[in-house]
Amino acid sequence: MRNLNTKAIGDIGEEIAVLHLIHKGYKILERNAEYSGVEIDIIAKDGKTLVFCEVKTRNNVAFGRPVEAVTRQKQLRYIQGAKGYILSNRVKNTDIRFDVIEVLEDEINHIKAAFEC
Fold it and tell me: Strands, DSSP E only, in 36-95?
């Protein structure tokens, strides 16, 4: 992944994250979905829980761990997008969770409930 551009690295990371989630038994509902002007990397179901996943991919930790890029401002935007999804799809009485999946070279770090509303 070293000689790829940022978009290509991100796309590879998202594919790795999707495969990881499928392997863990998640059902992928949408990828790169836009709600309320916010792009959500992965929307999935973990059992009965609706999960909004932000995927962060890096080649190295020179600028910190990938999860560190998910600032509170980014979290608030993700929450806004999740609310848009919930309204658009008339989701009711469902637990929701916000996860972050770090992809760093050959390491996958799935952080469940990385942030809350």
Answer: 38-46, 49-58
